[in-house]
Amino acid sequence: NNVGSLLFDFLSYLPYSGLTKTLALFIITLFFIVTINFGIYTLNNIAIEDKSQVSPRWQSMFWGGLLSAVTFVLYLFGGIEILQSTMLFFSLPFALLMSVMAWSLLKGLGFERQYYSTEVSDLWTGANWRSRLRQLVIESKQDDTIFNLKTTALLAMRELRQLLIGTYGLNVTLQQHFGRDNNQLVLSIENGLAEDFFYQITLFEKPVSETAQVHHALMVSTNIQVEGYPLSITREEDLIVDILQCYERYMKELDFVIS
In what order do the strands lie in the sheet with 172-178? Predict the structure, then answer.
């Protein structure tokens, strides 16, 4: 009739029952302490507003005292059975919450996969949205596009190349071609284990079928995205960030292939 004493009654039939009962009591006590400690930690994370800050000590003491008081009252009036029934009753909302969290995780992974597989370079920031919007709605002329290629893009690649060579000792080359039929920049970072990383910006011209105008844009191609994607240059920092993001993805794929 007393389920809680079954373990200790069973240990009474074995040798060294005093030692095994003491050890069992210690393990059970440790289990309850760890369980309550985990509950306090979880409740603190839910209750605190700033997740980056450590919860105050009084809050931990409050939740610990509340959990201990509720457990003691339930055990006092109903014993182990009422505790088990209460745990099952309160586990149902958490099961539903876990299902929502699992769905949110799958949705977040889908967004992340879509972000890393997109062919559009994401350079939108709060500081440059006006200039990006102007380039988005106003048709670029060939002279303006070549000017951006010779100034912003070239200066950014030179700055990054100087940093990689002078600070990190990498072997980096920068090729530039400006002519009537060929306008491009190619930044290459040598790698002794596999194909060298390259980041190529090329002037792309596409006639518009409805009109006699020609659309001019800068296209980017790398090792990880050879087909290319359009690039709208607004600042040197934006281009350097895009190059480093592509280089980071290249290094991760290289590590995966080697391993």
Answer: 172-178, 183-189, 197-207, 214-222, 229-231
Q: List all residues 6 or more positions away from 253 whose beta carbon is below 8 Å from its beta carbon.
A: 224
Q: For residue 191, what are the contacts with CB-CB under 8 A and spacing of at least 6?
A: 197, 254
Q: Can you say whether the dihedral through the CA atoms of 47, 49, 52, 58 is positive or negative?
A: negative
**CA-wise closest residue to 174 among 199, 196, 204:** 199
Distance CA 15, CA 58 (A): 46
pLDDT at residue number 189 = 92
Query: Is residue 43 within 8 Å of residue 60, measured between CB atoms?
Result: no
Whole-angstrom distance, CA of residue 132 vs CA of residue 235: 10
> What does the block give as tokens for 244?
């480093």
pTM for the predicted model, two decimal places: 0.45
| Residues of the chain under the 50 pLDDT cut | 121, 138-139
Q: How many Cβ atoms sit within 10 Å of the Cβ of residue 170?
A: 14
199: closest CA among 190, 187, 207, 208?
A: 187
Q: Which helix (H) or strand (E) holds 109?
A: helix 57-117
Question: pLDDT value at position 123?
Answer: 56
**Per the structure block, which two tokens stand in for 234?**
């607004």
